[in-house]
């Protein structure tokens, strides 16, 4: 499509230039009225023509120029508004600093609280542990005699007693003491006395205290007739006199003297009892 022609004309009176289209000139026979001085003149003389698109481009450039000219004013407005922006930024920074400070205080308070809780728990655990150790020690101390008879526990108790300067009771196992070659006969020097010969052996793997010896007589119906108990002091003699422990796996020959229990005492039996303190 061919663009319409636009003419530029100048008023001969006031010299104002303005644009008119070809259609406007044809309608008025070439006569136009100046918009400034209202002078009517023939626009057909001394006019320049140019395409409408060029005019539009010039107008666009003019508008762009006007917009660029108005930028300083906008910039001035922005500069004028900058103090408000700076004030808002300062206020925001203050708020952020305040929030950061509060967060730091909260974190510090939480750490302090956790630290107090940890110390409290540690103290509680220490008290409980101390109580358990105390109770355990008391149990071991008051039951050390019985516990020391356990071969698995005794070495530990010996170590503790070595530190605390205490003494464990000896290991006693009466069932490991056996007798043999038991013989009852009339005393060679006194007919009212009898002599009992026997051999005893500690078959345990460890020494143990000398036991008490109990000699019992019964009749034909196995009813008790007489009995006698001998302490270690009464039946030990020679090198064994005064010793406290019976050696392991060593035969010990004994000879005991006692009054004749009478003609009804036809059976006899030798047993061992644990020596009491």
Automatic annotation (TrEMBL):
Keywords: Membrane, Transmembrane, Transmembrane helix. Residues 9-43 form the Zinc finger/thioredoxin putative domain. Residues 58-67, 77-94 have a biased composition (Polar residues). Residues 58-95 are annotated as: Disordered. The chain crosses the membrane at residues 122-142. InterPro entries: DUF3426, Znf/thioredoxin_put. This is Zinc finger/thioredoxin putative domain-containing protein. It comes from Endozoicomonas montiporae CL-33.
């Amino acid at each position: 499509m061919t663009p319409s022609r636009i003419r530029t004309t100048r008023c001969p009176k006031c010299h104002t230039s303005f644009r008119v289209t070809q259609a406007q000139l044809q309608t008025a026979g070439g006569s136009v009225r100046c918009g400034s001085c209202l002078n009517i003149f023939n626009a057909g003389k001394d006019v320049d023509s140019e395409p409408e698109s060029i005019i539009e481009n010039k107008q666009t450039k003019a508008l762009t120029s006007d917009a660029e000219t108005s930028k300083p004013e906008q910039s001035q407005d922005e500069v004028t508004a900058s103090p408000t922006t700076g004030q808002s930024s300062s206020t925001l920074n203050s708020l952020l600093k305040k929030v950061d400070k509060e967060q730091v205080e909260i974190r510090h308070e939480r750490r302090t609280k956790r630290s107090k809780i940890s110390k409290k728990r540690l103290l509680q655990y220490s008290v409980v542990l101390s109580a358990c150790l105390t109770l355990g020690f008391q149990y071991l101390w008051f039951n050390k005699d019985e516990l020391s008879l356990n071969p698995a526990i005794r070495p530990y108790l010996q170590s503790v007693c070595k530190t605390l300067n205490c003494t464990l009771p000896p290991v006693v196992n009466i069932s490991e003491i056996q007798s043999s070659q038991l013989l009852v006969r009339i005393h060679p020097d006194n007919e009212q006395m009898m002599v009992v010969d026997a051999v005893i052996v500690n078959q345990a793997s460890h020494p143990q205290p000398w036991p008490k010896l109990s000699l019992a007589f019964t009749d034909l119906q196995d009813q008790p007739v007489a009995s006698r108990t001998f302490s270690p002091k009464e039946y030990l003699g020679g090198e064994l006199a005064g010793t406290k422990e019976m050696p392991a796996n060593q035969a010990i020959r004994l000879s005991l003297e006692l009054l004749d229990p009478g003609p009804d005492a036809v059976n006899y039996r030798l047993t061992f009892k644990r020596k009491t303190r």
